[in-house]
Structure prediction request, 690 residues.
Amino acid sequence: MTMWEEQVLDTARLRDDAVTLAHGSGGEATRTLIDAVFREAFGNPLLDRLDDSARFAVNGADLAFTTDSYVVSPLFFPGGDIGELAVNGTVNDLAVSGASPLHLSAAFIIEEGFPVADLRRITESMRDAADAAGVDIATGDTKVVQRGKADGCHINTSGVGVVHLPPTGEMRPGDAILVTGPIGDHGATIMLARGELDIAADPFSDGLVSDELVSDTAPLNCLLADLATCCPGAVRRMRDATRGGVATVLHEMAAESGLAALVDEDAIPVRPAVRGACELLGIDPMYVACEGRAVVVVSTEAAEAALASLRAHPLGADAAVIGHVHDDPPGTVLLKTGDPLPRIC
Amino acid sequence: MTMWEEQVLDTARLRDDAVTLAHGSGGEATRTLIDAVFREAFGNPLLDRLDDSARFAVNGADLAFTTDSYVVSPLFFPGGDIGELAVNGTVNDLAVSGASPLHLSAAFIIEEGFPVADLRRITESMRDAADAAGVDIATGDTKVVQRGKADGCHINTSGVGVVHLPPTGEMRPGDAILVTGPIGDHGATIMLARGELDIAADPFSDGLVSDELVSDTAPLNCLLADLATCCPGAVRRMRDATRGGVATVLHEMAAESGLAALVDEDAIPVRPAVRGACELLGIDPMYVACEGRAVVVVSTEAAEAALASLRAHPLGADAAVIGHVHDDPPGTVLLKTGDPLPRIC
Prediction:
């Protein structure tokens, strides 16, 4: 199928006349909107890769450039806030693209009436996160909109980094799939903070107290730079598992490579509090957002060294090999039980 | 006054407990919020310059990096739409920083229920604007928020450019102040489109028809690159006159340099339709936003050549020398009549 035919198909697939919340899920509907509207209009070799960052050279310097808008509700949650998220998320988009983050921008859309004290708390949190990641906020923008035209505060951060990891080889059958830590903590924390879990303390009485649910937001640049240093040439692919969770990342990797990801559910690290919350909500932690976890694919030979490298870093202490790449059936994600892991809509 | 004392003063000056629309005006209140909250938290040498872009070197490449969020209402207006604005605005922030824009990011926050047809119209407009400015949209992001949590569509664009103009000398007494074209067209158009001008066709019967009010949104990169080529070493300062208009730019230039800007009101190009609209609204066009006009300060000797260079380009055909830099009274903007041009709050 040519690129043109693919685009026509994607355009046809977008049957909605209006944008829905599903278009923001990070799953199939998001991809359809991106293909049918954004790639249709902007399509160019850099954008079409749909990587976490665009990589390009300027006067001999290899750069990565990325952007993300943050719209989380509530703005403050156990383990972090929108400010910390906005710094770490963009740092991580650069890090998984094999780049060392250098400078971030920060653009605020603030709703009229937003407390200045909250804005200070958010900016202080951004400063601390930027310090921890070793970046600065080099440029910014502030807009204020009328009441009801935003949700308190929306933040966009974009980032520029310098590429340290040369373009890697394609994923190959036999490659190992790792996650850098327990999954779903951020998404489960947000759902609980939103009150989507309509539960009292009881269901948590066996240790699953809500106190244990905290966002995993963290900067992954040092963790992933260590990995690249430890296993030169062995890292095939890195993605941070944000919207749509680990399952969505695996689906995208499978689709891009035309290979299959076979995942051992028992090997996936999930904290008891997260598992408990997900069971109550009837959702699979594999689809729940992380904000400080990456999925990493490395060559078979490097799997052990990669795992050791990740585990040597505090943010990778619970890293695990969760599966392997196979050549069949192409473009799919399967559990070891033989069941397919579906794409979310 | 040390930087520390200055910050304490600014912090003290921010007496509001909540963010107000005035904090988004681009004037004094915006500056106070930026100083008391954003610089207070993020302060670093790049950000503290508060230039339109941050300039830094990466592996020998001199880069500029900028960000802007666009929240205009209505989204579509005579002469443009939010998409065109989002591309041109960021292109211009790079251009006035002496950089050639290379790559933009585009991040959308879309309100649930937003028509896909409008989104297509906006993205097509962005593509056309990007093509006209010679940039691509290299990376992007899409978020969807619930109804009532945004105003249809907010767009952030960030941009990376390569610096072609070395850091210029400081402004000096005698320097000429130019605008690249008639001022206030964008802001007057938006006010009319919003219905803030509660007028029928009559007041426009002497040629001031509303049809003549169209946004001036345009990419200034080629115009300003030509200027830099024509007058090497003579360009002191360039700013695009967006929020707060030409008056706000002049105030910032005066404050930064500790010099005075003396402006001849009669020399300022203002279209009759804009002048008519501003008279009806009781506002001075000097404070009305442009989206395709820059204020340029050049050395006395280069003034004539600079004007000729600007006028040789279609986007600078109506450029004019509007005043000169004086050394006294420091930090002020004066009209030729002797009246001060006040800062907006």
In short: The first helix of chain B runs from residue 3 to 13. Chain B touches chain A through 80 residues (CB under 8 Å). Residues 1-9, 200-209 of chain B have pLDDT under 50 and may be disordered.
